[in-house]
């Protein structure tokens, strides 16, 4: 537009007779050719090689600096035309008018269809006239990776990455790596010993040249952008020199201070100085500073005296260091729900959780592999497993904890093996066994003479002797049973660990009602998060089995290998940009952005921006815009459409659900009135109040916003943002006497072409009714 | 067209209209549809009326959600509920068998159904005294008799004008049914 000599190439595709049968291409060409700023060509199949050659030949004319392709849906041949056009022009100096799926296939009246095609093409011409070249940007990439949490997921991700030659910082809060898996006795569905599986992995992690294993440490500060994040790692003092300590255990023997062992889930005491657990990595002692007499009161110092390696150092201090990384894996895991103060009587020593039973099963555990009642150290005659304790419960955690059916089945089987004459019961609601060899495993359980009781106890009680009992209605026998049980094992709900919650807030990650970290897309992007370069794996995302943690871990390593494949990354700047002269720094865009792509200084982090345009809808001054669909471009497109057919219904559609549904209607040849004109936006969250009102100002009869339903938005909550803008716009429409009913929100899913057809008919009926 | 489910024991059909009424009534008091119940039978496991009178709240829920509501009305089972609200408190799905049973009991009364004998006695007590039952003296293991007086509790007030009281209580009760 700036240079009036410049022209726009308009290419009309017949698509054989797919378009040409219903749209009069000849007339279009004739009408368009009257505009001297256009160079109009047509072709039987524009996507064919000869069609593309036509485009390339035409673009030899240096006066043509932008292009409109009027053909099929961009979902179809966008990339073909893009790669053709970018041989001559910037790859964003063109636009597509969908005159097949949105026109020739859905209309029968040739005159009307031709007029509509003209309107769509004029919209595209208007828009493309305002296009500016969108450049590429080279971004430097740091190829180191931070893995937070050294449980089975974090360890496996670290190894996968290290083997791909990435340098990994593996940060672990505890004094030893391995996480919850090291506490398990055996694992389902193979019943192999957990430590036998975990141990080699732990040793490989500690000896891998590409892994920097940092124990007793936490991430305390985090900033930067994808490819160049900065994390501060704070390391607590161990008070023992890991290079000198030989793990002999003499210090623990002599230490006078006993404390309950957190590792053993308080089933056993340990000392203020101790080695976390047998065969741990690193197998080095550490001192609990809160319990140590020397550190707290300056007394004792026995461990220093007896240590043959001279490894004790009471003067160690906390250290912090800053690391630069390109990507982050969050693998901070779960914790067991605290069931105190509930109907399960968890205060009673003989009511334990599954993980505590795992410790008893372990030969290295507090009972040396014997299942005993904690209250009296005797072997129980009756053991009862109660499932879904705190899970599937609206009062506590709504979700199913996923692994409890299988691990309780395993623990019941092991209990049978260890106490052959015990009565073993399991109270359950449903048994969930969907997985490789899981149903077979459930059958094995039933072969072990475990009494399966289909019902949930209301409360666990104790009689005057302190013995446990409960009533349960067994739905299979229709009997109310009273069960006296020496030991009760609860299948306690898994909850996000404290570390998971801390990382959620430090890394600014979205989380669900359940506090677990939400992945970017639960199906197609299960380990990605809203922040590019930050991945969530294992049980920090949801309760899951070891095998699922491993899958997650490998998956995140693969994602990272893609992101960090070289020292630089080239991206298209189809991102937001801020006009700082207009910006009042109100902070609304920063708050609205789901991807942390706008800094406190109002700079756009191009690596993080996904170009959805939600920021635009909240900006009161239209100071922020996405380069690939500016306000002027969108409104000019509306102008173009309405200049040909003022009596139109404008349907703003989200690029994914709404636009696809309209395409499906086209592919299925579902007919609807030609008054409907579809205008594509990346996400309906892009639409501000002004965008919604604009078509009315220009004479449009009605406006629809056709979008992904709430919760299914591809940019998280664009739908909600649109609904908010619609509410406001409706108010204005009422105030101005236009009528709020003329603006309609339509939630739709991609395949629902029939619904798209139906709403178009409904809307059209309303204008026809009015005109009568 | 098929006509859906039939109970082959008595050839009865689910009552869809009644079921919708039930959902509506439940929603008025902020409760979700009985369809949400996933039949863990935890309510029945802890039900005080189960042990003595074999009330199975989870079965009532199951019949209700299938739409067999007349069957619930015909049986005396729901009148065994003592209204302790433990089922509501413990339900993992925030269902309330006790409230559901109250709704159906109200329907029984408004449809003129004969109530079980003990329940009538109880209602009679409320009409005359405002209490579900009159207080009794009790003896302890040492054969010592206790009553409210010897426990230092205030005397229970009784209506001064018996007729007026009964009238007011009846009106109040009927108001709830309108």
How would you explain this protein's 3D organization?
- The complex is a heterodimer of chains A (772) and B (178).
- By secondary structure, chain A is an alpha/beta fold.
- In chain A, the strands form 12 sheets. Chain A has a 5-stranded parallel beta sheet with strand order 10-7-6-18-29, with helices on one face.
- In chain A, helix 6 crosses helix 7 (194-207), helix 11 runs parallel beside helix 12 (404-418) and helix 12 (404-418) packs parallel to helix 13.
- Chain A is elongated, with a radius of gyration of 33 Å.
- Chain A starts with 6 loop residues before the first strand and ends with a helix.
- With 178 residues, chain B is mainly alpha-helical.
- In chain B, strands 1-2 form a two-stranded antiparallel sheet.
- The chains are: A alpha/beta (772), B mainly alpha (178).
- Chain A binds chain B through residues 343, 388, 392-395, 429-430, 454-459, 470-475, 480, and chain B through 38-47, 50-51, 56, 58, 86, 90, 92-94.
Task: Give a short synopsis of this structure.
Chain A has 772 residues and is of the alpha/beta class.
Percent of sequence in beta strands of chain A? 15-25%
Largest sheet descriptor of chain B: 2 strands, antiparallel
Tell how many strands the DSSP assignment of chain B holds.
Answer: 2
How are the strands of the largest sheet of chain A arranged? Answer: 10-7-6-18-29
Which percent range describes the beta-strand content of chain B?
under 5%
Helix percent band of chain B: 40-55%
SS content category of chain A: alpha/beta
Mean pLDDT of chain B: 90
Q: Give Rg of chain A in angstroms.
A: 33 Å
Overall mean pLDDT of chain A stands at 95
Q: Structural class per helix/strand content of chain B?
A: mainly alpha
**Uncertain segments of chain A:** none
End-to-end Cα distance of chain A, whole Å, is: 42 Å
Q: Residue share in helices of chain A?
A: 25-40%
Straight-line distance between termini of chain B: 37 Å
Instruction: Calculate Rg of chain B over CA atoms.
Output: 20 Å
Low-pLDDT parts of chain B are: none
Strand order in space, largest sheet of chain B: 1-2
